[in-house]
Structures are given as C-alpha cells and as structure tokens.
Amino acid sequence: MSSAATSAPPTAASRRPARDARRPLSVVPRRVPRRSRVSTVVMCALALAAALVGILLLNIQITQGQYQLTDLTGQERALSQENEALTQDIEANSAPQNLAARANDLGMVPAKDVGSIDLRTGAVTAPSSAAEKSDPQNILVPPAEMKGSDAAEANRRAAEERAEKRAKEEADRKTAQREAAQKAEESRDLNGGSIPAPSQRAPGH
C-alpha cells in the first residue's frame, strides 16, 4: 500500500483553528462608596432640628395671629357699640318730641293759619293770623333723658366697676388662702411637726 492510501483523512476537529484557552470576561459594576454612619446621623439630627424650629415658628405665628384676631374682635365690638350708640342718638334727636322741645327753646311757635303768597304779584292771597306762644307742657311725650352714647358710657363704667370688684374679691380670696396656708405651715413646723411627749418624773419626787 502506498503512504497516501494508508493515511487517515483529516477530521473536522483538525480543520478548526487553534484558539487560546481564555476565561470569559464580564463587566464588574463600580463599587459605590458607603456613606459613613456619622454623616447620616448628623443629617437626621439637622432635619429634626429644622422640623422643630419650623414647628416653633409656626406656633409663634399662630399665637400672634390669635392675639391680633382678639384685638380686632375687640375693636369691632367697640366700633359696633359706638355705631349703635350714634344711631340711637340720631333716632333720639329725630324724634318729634325732641324737635318740638328744641324748637320751643329757640322761641319758635306752631303756626295756626297758613297764608298763601302770589309769586307774580307778591300779594297775600289767604289771610293768616299771628302765631301765639304755646305752653311747653303741651308736648305729649317728654324727650329722652339719656342719649345712646350716654347709655353706652354708663354701661361701660358699670362693666369696669364690676370687673374691678371681681378682681378685688379674687385678690382678697387669694390673700386669705395664702394666710391660711402660712398659718398651717407654721403650726406644722412647731415642735418638729409632732406633739411633744409628756415628761416623766423620777421616783421619789
């Protein structure tokens, strides 16, 4: 046999090119540096302090708003009372009996007959009689003795007197309680806070 006939035919494995034996590579994720616990604690403390400061400022604003609301409510109440008092003054001054009283004080008298004057000729077309002084006691309803503003002022004075009386009674009550507590403290401190034991006599005496 010839050498060509005895040699085996080349296989597919022998036809593959030789490759270098290498391990597969992969992308390694970048390590994120860990934050220290101290910085986390500091940030939490700062956030808590900021929250407390914010709550404190909010409470201060709410308190100031309540004070302003109370002041404005008091001013509104005072202006409402003043407006009501002025309205009562206007109604009292516009009353017929008050108008009649003021007219009587000015020397005015009611007219009996009404005369007519012709504007073209200037002549009196209807006779009129002279006015006579009337009796001031003819006013049916006497004028109001107190105006609305005077009544409001009187009510304000009465309220102040009641408030002063209440404050004085409260002060007297606190003084009495303080004196009673002081006396009780003194009696408790006497003799060490206990009743002294009776003294015993020696035998033969």
UniProtKB/TrEMBL annotation:
Positions of region (Disordered): 1-27, 125-205
TM region positions: 40-60
Alphabetically ordered keywords of this record: Membrane, Transmembrane, Transmembrane helix
Compositional bias (Low complexity): 1-15
Stretches with biased composition (Basic and acidic residues): 147-189
Protein's UniProt name: Cell division protein FtsL
